Amino acid sequence: MKKILLILTILIPLWINAQTEYEFSAYRKVVPDGYNFWLSIPDTYKDQREKMPLILFLHGHSLCGSDLNRVRRYGCLDAISMGKDINAIVVAPQNPGGPWNALKLNNVLNWVQEHFEFDTNRLYVIGMSMGGYGTFQYVGTYPERVAAAMAFCGGSNLREHCGLNTVPLWIIHGTADRAVSVAESQKVVNAMKACGNTDLLRFDKFPGVNHSQLAKMFYIPETYEWLFRHSRTDSVRQVDKEVVITASTMSAAYQNIDRAANKIVIVDPNKFHAKDTTQAMNQDTTSTVSGTSSSQEQASAPASQTTPKYHTVKKGDTLYAIARKYHTTVSKLCKLNHIKETSILSLGQKIRVR
Fold it and tell me: For the segment 251-284, what is each residue's pLDDT rounded down to a tens digit?
């Protein structure tokens, strides 16, 4: 137990008025068949890199469109701007309209993984309303990539929900929600139960809480503490039940706000190569928080020279598992080996990893 507490002390970021500086970079039209997106990187990234978790934030219908600044109106990015310290890379795509597309989201994450280092075993998904629908859509389609997920006041368009049962998942919905009925989350839970074991599921109904009130979830430390307690490397996948969030917990969401304490740096991705983030952070490139940045696809950082050139396929191996092991992406493996994501691997097959 003492070892667990020690690990949590290291992994869970301190929730204080932020002393961390964050770079916000806007990327437009860099991912074929993907979305435009914001990338928020804390200055602690330069020391942590491969230990850094990543959060995929999916917004609701009100933030759809082509103006990326809308994505910063509420949610993870706004929490950072308000002085909340989230020690993780945050990927915040913008949906131009319509349901979230799991393949497009996966293409964005593949692009980020090709250009930035992070702990691929600590990828988290969180979304509200339409973003809650998107959370179910992505996690249900690519459960093997996700360490844990949270869906607020959402529902599901999935045809198959069984993949959700393999990921620690916390569903929260207010009983007074008139925009998306709590019955929509209940349908997801029922579909998961029909698949079998739901030991990795938490489902809470908040009495008297309406649709918009759940936006407070992005501004409380318990939300991120719960996410960060999970990793795909856990010897036994379990859903954490120690972190408690209630309607009264959310009442403190907007306390201790100090935007001045949090120095946001708007970065033009054209100015530096992704692997040189540390150098760029040390340069005097600060602009005002209201600024925007242009976008250009960046070349990926070279793989470590200690990485084996080939991997021999063993029982249970998948392209995603191999990609995680060597900190690369499935798309890159496919290009190197002239195969498709749907290709069947054979025991003993040699897969080039760099």
Answer: 889 887 766 566 667 665 544 334 444 333 333 3
CA distance 172 to 138: 17
d(CA 172, CA 150): 8
Tokens of 67: 């103006």
Under the banding of pLDDT at 50, 70 and 90, the label for residue 299 is: very low
Give bridge partners of residue 93 from the DSSP assignment: 37
Whole-structure pTM over 0.85, yes or no? no
Helix (H, G, I), strand (E, B) or coil at 196: coil
Q: Which helix (H) or strand (E) holds 128?
A: strand 123-128
DSSP 31-98: STTS-EEEEEEETTHHHHGGG--EEEEE--GGG-SS-GGGGGSSSHHHHHHTT----SEEEEEE--SS
Q: What is the pLDDT of residues 13-28, one digit of tens each?
A: 434 344 688 999 999 9
